[in-house]
Amino acid sequence: AKQNGRDNAQMFAEEMACAVTRQFAYEQEIGQGLKQGQFYLVYQPKVFQSPDQITGLEALIRWQHPERGLIPPGDFIPVAEESSVIIPVSEWVIDQALKQLAQWQQAGLDIVPVAINLSGRHLISDALLPYVAEKLKHYQIAGELLEFEITEGVLLQDIHRCIEVMTALKAMNIRISVDDFGTGYSSLSYLKRLPLDILKIDQSFVEECDTYSEDYKICETIIHLATNLDLVTVAEGVETAGQADTLTSLGCQLFQGYHFYKPVSPDKVESLLQQNKLD
Ligand code: C2E
Ligand code: CA
Ligand code: CA
Ligand code: CA
């Protein structure tokens, strides 16, 4: 048994070493992919009531890997977040999205704000604020046209630093939303301490909001809470008209999901903005 135990310990150590090597190799590959232009952005519209009332866009990253094909962000973003490689990835997203907005603006389109998903590591880093300020200036984009989506877990890690950074972002007129609301820690005290604008109701509650009464009640409560705190609510992952109708009746203001749009290419955004009826 003792012999066996040692073997297991050794196997475990080898597996750990292997996992560390794998993580390291993956990080290297992400950095490499960035340099070689393997990443691109797609944009998912957020709408007011109907598809021709687009109020904003969410930038979502994609990785076209030369051998492994298209890798979804759920695969590599968590790996990138384990190390500092998330910062160059995230900076690339900010640069790319602002460059895109500037192009649309120059083409005479009626542009709408773009939301960018920000990982906690980047939010609390010293790098974010100077980078964003410089890029807004460089591309001549108003802060109102930028929004950052941040998940709840992040907000509780270092609340003081979050308050500091968010206050500076607000001073640039950048909007801040809480992503996947309701899935993180249950403390709600951060809602009153942070300068937030938007709550995004997680799609896990939206999925059965019109069939399962517990989810209905959760959506109702989140919307009620948001309204009382003067926050805008966005429902994400809306896939059916029934869900949209239910959420509308509860007072949800904005919608995002396959029922309206899947994430689309920049070209498609351009034609959608040309037909947009929001004023
Ligand atoms: P998220 O921010 O919660 O984004 C919503 C995800 O749900 C997206 O998946 C979107 O394509 C998908 N989705 C939208 N509508 C529907 C719907 O009606 N039904 C269903 N089933 N899914 C829907 P995606 O693009 O694969 O992104 C997954 C996650 O990866 C994002 O979740 C976000 O956490 C992260 N992510 C994506 N892009 C970035 C990025 O540029 N930076 C960072 N830090 N994270 C990113
Ligand atoms: Ca998001
Ligand atoms: Ca989300
Ligand atoms: Ca999510």
From TrEMBL:
Residue intervals of the EAL domain: 23-277
Record localization: Membrane
Coiled coil region boundaries: none
Family: Belongs to the ammonia transporter channel (TC 1.A.11.2) family.
Protein name (record): Ammonium transporter
Organism: Oceanospirillum sediminis
Gene giving rise to this polypeptide: amt
Coverage span on the entire protein: 755 to 1033 of 1050
